[in-house]
Design brief:
heterodimer, A: 242 residues, mainly alpha, two-stranded parallel sheet, 2 strands, elongated, B: 347 residues, 3-stranded antiparallel beta sheet, two-stranded antiparallel ribbon, 15 helices, extended
Chain lengths: 242, 347
């Protein structure tokens, strides 16, 4: 285990991803090993999404239920508004984040998240569902909902990592990063090969000069025959007579 | 297009952008730290981000306690020391840069809850009970069959068990208490004497030897309230308070605010303001650590920070920041709302 040589540098960023990236780099620079930061827990559970006709049918039936009539929302009793039509409980994103992440960290919620991730649900979909539910409950407004997408997604990812699940981030992209790694490695190998080939080529042709070619390697009698029979000489690979 | 469709579309864009940023950062880190797989970097990012978002509570929760100082999470959290005292133009900006200040509210419930998930600690340890290794007796007629060793070392769940939605607590409960009543940990009979050391699920509950009188019993009162009335009655003890039931301190608005503040800023506030309010001392509001009023000057750091970042302080909520020295954790801190706390009209 690596021991830190210094204290952490202050990191502030408007993007959580960037802040996390800087902190990880800072940690590695300070002397931590990647295993200290992200310890290996053995083979991961593959959260692969499986096609289910039943689920698809359910989705189709839901989407076929029709949509509200234009202006329908204006016909509602104003004394009984929907929760999202009332002032939100949290206007400060920090407080909203505390509340949401606090509720995600509850055992029951975590079990559901772990189960969903293991069954192939994407982090983005889960995050959307959670935040959308909070909006529906009147806890947050749409602006805060958008602002909290990234931290909530990261929290879900951390839960997935803790449960040792290989999860989808968006859609079915389980192996996307690995595939990119493989592609990158393949490209690197091809580049290495090309470089090596170029080096060999350069090395081999470097000392060759046409004026220095020894023409006496081929006996003069054979050269004379070649000159004499020139056009008649057929290549070994030429088409034979029919 | 309706509101919800717009929201859905916008959210799709946001999540897509988040994924792009994640991948970009993974690639950025990979360029610096070579020979590490992207998934490993993603894991490191997720962990670091979780620490930032939850103020360390997530790691504490995952690992069953607070992050140790030698660990990466502990090292991150110690960043506060590096920035405290940081001044800009003579103003102590570091004073407001209290990283992970948002953790306070979550730490209690999060750490308690999630440790059940990892099985490293149990809820009992959070509630202040100690293991029953030295305590005998079986009050309430319930005897635990949980082995102390299994509990103390932490029941490690298998993947199948986690996916089945089981927790160490649920497994222990299922194996120990077959009846529905037992599963709820409810006593079937009242004890013949004042309970001392009580053992439930291998843990000793520190039940007080002096039983408080009924303070909030109402129709449909819970088990706790009923016990508070019935136990003294069965023991022949006269409750200290017998007059008409009054709402407790924590039922009042001020009490709720106080409780919220307590939960937000942690133990310091509880030992300070809350205890003094409960004790009836209205003159002293509590110690500076948690509950005292913060003056305008303490907000200057935030203003300077906002100015440096080109952020309008009136619109500061729209500029949420992240990091181990993030002053935006203070945007809505209860420390700045202390004047709202009133008890009996005394502000």
């Amino acid at each position: 285990m690596g021991t830190p040589k210094r204290q952490a540098n202050p990191v502030i960023s408007s993007s959580l991803s960037e802040a996390a990236g800087q902190i990880v780099l800072d940690g590695l620079d300070a002397g931590f090993d990647i295993e200290d930061i992200a310890p290996d827990k053995g083979p991961k559970i593959r959260g692969e999404a499986k096609f289910s006709q039943e689920n698809l049918d359910e989705l189709v039936s839901l989407s076929n239920r029709g949509t509200p009539i234009p202006g329908q929302s204006l016909t509602r009793d104003t004394d009984n508004p929907y929760p999202w039509e009332t002032p939100p409980e949290f206007t400060n994103p920090r407080e909203a984040l505390d509340d949401i992440v606090g509720s995600l960290m509850q055992p029951e919620a975590m079990k559901n998240i772990v189960s969903a991730l293991a069954q192939g649900a994407a982090v983005a979909d889960l995050g959307t569902a959670i935040l959308y539910a909070k909006f529906n409950e009147g806890k947050i407004n749409p602006d805060v909902m958008m602002m909290l997408a990234e931290p909530v997604m990261y929290t879900i990812m951390a839960i997935g990592e803790e449960a040792n699940i290989k999860y989808n981030i968006e859609g079915n992209d389980l192996d996307e990063l690995d595939e990119e790694d493989d592609q990158e490695e393949f490209d690197n190998r091809v580049n290495e090969f090309r470089n090596a080939l170029t080096d060999i080529k350069k090395g081999a042709t470097k000392n060759i000069e046409p004026s220095k070619i020894n023409t006496k390697v081929v006996p003069e009698s054979i050269l004379a025959q070649v000159k004499e029979k020139g056009p008649e000489i057929k290549s070994l690979l030429s088409k034979g007579e029919e | 297009m309706g509101l919800f469709k717009k929201l859905k579309k916008a959210f799709k864009k946001v999540t897509g952008a988040v994924k792009k940023v994640v991948k970009k950062v993974v690639k950025g880190v990979k360029k610096v730290v070579k020979k590490i797989s992207s998934s490993k970097i993603l894991k490191a990012l997720a962990i670091a981000a979780a620490v930032v978002v939850t103020g360390g509570a997530a790691i504490g929760a995952f690992t069953g306690g607070t992050a140790a100082s030698g660990t990466f999470a502990g090292w991150m959290m110690n960043a506060s020391q590096a920035v405290t005292g940081f001044t800009v133009g003579g103003v102590n900006v570091g004073a407001v840069m209290k990283p992970f200040a948002s953790a306070g509210k979550m730490l209690g419930k999060a750490a308690a809850g999630v440790t059940d998930f990892t099985g490293l600690t149990t809820e009992a340890s959070r509630t202040g009970s100690v293991q029953a290794s030295t305590i005998s007796g079986k009050p309430f007629g319930i005897e635990s069959t949980a082995t102390e060793g299994a509990v103390s070392s932490g029941t490690q769940l298998t993947t199948e068990q986690i996916l089945a939605g089981e927790t160490p607590a649920s497994i222990a409960r299922a194996s120990q208490m077959p009846s529905a009543q037992a599963a709820l940990n409810l006593p079937s009979t009242l004890p013949p004497s004042v309970p001392g050391a009580t053992t439930v699920s291998g843990y000793q509950l520190n039940i007080p030897t002096t039983i408080p009188g009924p303070t909030g019993l109402s129709a449909g009162a819970g088990v706790t309230e009923q016990l508070a009335v019935n136990v003294p009655k069965s023991l022949g003890v006269t409750p200290k308070v017998t007059e008409a039931v009054k709402p407790g301190f924590f039922d009042t608005t001020a009490g709720k605010v106080t409780s919220f503040v307590g939960r937000t800023v942690g133990g310091a506030a509880l030992t300070g303001m809350t205890q003094q309010y409960i004790a009836g001392d209205r003159e002293q509001r509590g110690s500076m650590a948690g509950a005292a009023y913060e003056g305008e000057s303490n907000l200057e750091g935030l203003k300077i920070f906002a100015a440096q970042k080109g952020v309008d302080t009136n619109d500061i909520y729209a500029h949420i920041m992240y990091g181990n020295s993030d002053p935006s954790t203070q945007y809505g801190n209860e420390l700045y709302r202390q004047q709202t706390v009133t008890v009996g009209g005394v502000a």
